[in-house]
Amino acid sequence: MQVIETLAQGLKRELKVVIPAKDMEARMNERLAEVKDRVKINGFRPGKVPFAHLKKVYGKSIMADLVNEIVREKPTEILSGRGEKSATQPEIAMTEDESEADKILNAEADLEFTVAYEIIPAIELKDVSGIKVTREVVEIAEDEVNEQILRIAESARTYESKKGKAANGDRVTIDYLGKVDGEAFDGGKDEDAELVLGSNRFIPGFEEQLVGVKAGDEKTITVTFPADYPAANLAGKEATFDITVKDVASAQDIEINDELATKLGLESADKLKEIVRGQIESQYGSLTRQKVKRQILDQLDELYQFDTPERLVEAEFENIWRQINTDLQQAGKTFADEETTEEEARAEYRKLAERRVRLGLVLSEIGEKAGVQVSDDELQRSLFEQLRQFPGQEKQILDYFKNTPGAAASLRAPLFEEKVVDHLLSEISVTDKTVSKEELTADDEETEGKAAKKAPAKKKAAAKADAAEGEEAAAPKKKAPAKKKAADDSAE
């Protein structure tokens, strides 16, 4: 086999691979010798088929199998021998001339094919001891725990039907039908919908017009959807709702005690408080971790500057661009609304894509050199978390990960990255700083990464600095079950 490098430009490589016809014929003959005792051909006893006849009957099909095996397996072997890693699956090209292909299958012409790919650049790891990050920590006040418990108690509050008019704080049970320009719209209908007046669950003006209604009342109200309403076909539109009031119930007093805890499935009020405190700590801990990670990524971005494989960048950019356009479409907005142009947005998001790819390669190299591993148990727990998030869709998700090439890697990538971040935290300078919850939750654009700073849709997922990770998890495209009915979503 002869391997000739025909292109070495930047990270791009192209190789010409030539396997002489006589070598291909020798391999074919070996295969024919292996099967001659097993094949059955009319007129011949097993093992007694003349070799020339065997070759005439099976030669081309065996040669075709050999060609497929070589084209599938040799590129990996060749790249390994060259000490190179391909950023994506190499592109293989062979002759498309039928007569030439037929000559190859008859061992009358050399097998030739080209392998085109981009290499992953060699990354020389740098000293990270100079990286300094500030870890913002919030001290959780007792009042905050009590406020959260009160909100939980509110959700578990009981109501008792009453006679008379509904007031703020009362719960009304209603049927409703929404119309725009006299026509019912999707998601604008519901039956036995429960609504606590004053909760501001529905669009402005809806709940206020139900104050004073009684069970059995029928009423038509008129409201206007907000201009920034997520459903573009309803945003800014005036709508009417035909409402039938089926019940009015008054709220019962709330008491934070063991009885409430028992109703929530816990043994005591103390246990409820312990769990709520833990949940708040976890929420703040996630934000703290996110901000620390942003600082690390920003400083790694300054430490490492190198060319990135174009194909990886293009794939990453397409993921970002698809999400951005989906978000804009759902919001009923354009790039002009975001005070930019499509051309400018493309340029900025391509920079973000380059950053993600570069940092992904850096983190991968750091993790590999540090011996970071993701265990099977960790992968299993991650899969279970996926299943937990989408109840009722467990089979589809399991089938996805079982049948989709690379799906398991999409679970492994974020786990690996987080473990690399943990490794880095053990080697860099970390200073704790006590802050208020307002400071911790503030939208700090300065930490969103230089490439994301100027991104037009600042609230979009793709613009988050946290998404400057090198690899995106390719989770199954399943929709999480709606927390509320579709009708509620339209009226809220």
From TrEMBL:
Its EC number is 5.2.1.8. Residues 452-462 have a biased composition (Basic residues). Its main location: cytoplasm. Keywords: Cell cycle, Cell division, Chaperone, Cytoplasm, Isomerase, Rotamase. It is an enzyme of class 5 (isomerase). It holds the Pfam family Trigger_C. Signal peptide: none annotated. One of its GO terms (molecular function) is protein folding chaperone. Residues 169-270 form the PPIase FKBP-type domain. It catalyses: [protein]-peptidylproline (omega=180) = [protein]-peptidylproline (omega=0). Consists of 3 domains; the N-terminus binds the ribosome, the middle domain has PPIase activity, while the C-terminus has intrinsic chaperone activity on its own. This is Trigger factor. It comes from Ensifer canadensis.
